[in-house]
Amino acid sequence: MSYVFDLERLQALSAAHGKEYRTAEPYPYAVIDQFLRPERALELARHFPQPQDPIAWDYFGAEHFEVKMGCSREEHFPTGLRSAIHDMNSGPFVSFLEQLTGIDHLLPDPHLVGGGIHLTREHGHLGIHADFNWHERLQAHRRVNLLIYLTPDWSSELGGELELWDRQARSCQRIVEPLFNRAVVFSTRSDSFHGHPNHWKSASIHRQSIALYYYTAGADSECPPRAPHNTLYKGLHVE
């Protein structure tokens, strides 16, 4: 079976968007539509685990900060979803990310710490935050986030838009709609504030996404180094 992505297309996209990614504000990022092969994206959406499915969901319920479900235990994933994640942790895909971001020596995370699959139900949200920056098990620095949205027929009435905020977490600089089969790639820094504070508004449709993170043995030389930290939330850790 072919990869869940079209590698030739991704290679062309990395060449076309590399400069744009590296000069983007408020921090390096790219938004890529029709990211996965269309038929594979539809398959993933159809078989995406639902709240009632016994896949060892983790429940996050800190109101105003994080209300969602997630699972990083791939042994519980449907076969197609597990295969897709393996594809995006493969050498060819990591090479694509290196070419796009300009960050060399990226490492995938086979443990999916903090990542894997995420599902948001009615009233769910994710406050503005900067992600944890250190993977204890890999002994590596977090450098790149990949988010892929898998809710078919998303519309603005559903909410859940991704917001990219400035590096001081004072104001939103870009709103990214979670359109089906859209990917967002961005550099993970201690000041790359983002989230989806606009609550999800449907009881029957869920916000479905894949979240994968990539690391390097060395820290970001272009950003002031910070000691290892957990997620930093605006209003809790950052004023």
Question: Summed up, what is this model?
Answer:
This protein is 19% helix and 29% strand. The protein is built from 4 helices and 14 strands.
Largest sheet: 14 strands, antiparallel
Provide the number of structural domains: 1
Can you tell me the CATH class? Mainly Beta
Helix content: 10-25%
Oligomer: single chain
End-to-end distance:
49 Å
Instruction: Tell me, rounded to a whole number, the average pLDDT.
Output: 94
Given the structure, what is the number of helices?
A: 4
Q: Gyration radius, to the nearest Å?
A: 17 Å
N to C succession of SSEs: HEHEEHHEEEEEEEEEEE
CATH architecture descriptor: Sandwich
Quick one: CATH superfamily?
q2cbj1_9rhob like domain
Structural class: alpha+beta
What's the layout of helices and strands?
Blueprint lengths: L6 H17 L5 E4 L5 H9 L11 E5 L3 E6 L7 H9 L3 H11 L5 E2 L7 E5 L4 E6 L3 E2 L4 E10 L12 E4 L6 E5 L6 E5 L6 E3 L10 E10 L15 E2 L6
Antiparallel strand pairs: 1-11, 2-3, 3-5, 3-6, 4-13, 5-13, 6-12, 6-14, 7-8, 8-11, 8-13, 9-10, 9-12
Helix pairs in contact: 1-4
Structure description:
The chain is of the alpha+beta class. The chain has one domain: Sandwich (Jelly Rolls), CATH 2.60.120. Helix content is 19%, strand content 29%. It has helices at residues 7-23, 38-46, 79-87, 91-101; strands at residues 29-32, 58-62, 66-71, 107-108, 116-120, 125-130, 134-135, 140-149, 162-165, 172-176, 183-187, 194-196, 207-216, 232-233. Strands 1, 2, 3, 4, 5, 6, 7, 8, 9, 10, 11, 12, 13 and 14 form a 14-stranded antiparallel beta sheet that branches. A hairpin with a 3-residue loop joins strand 2 and strand 3. It starts with 6 loop residues before the first helix and ends in a 6-residue tail after the last strand.
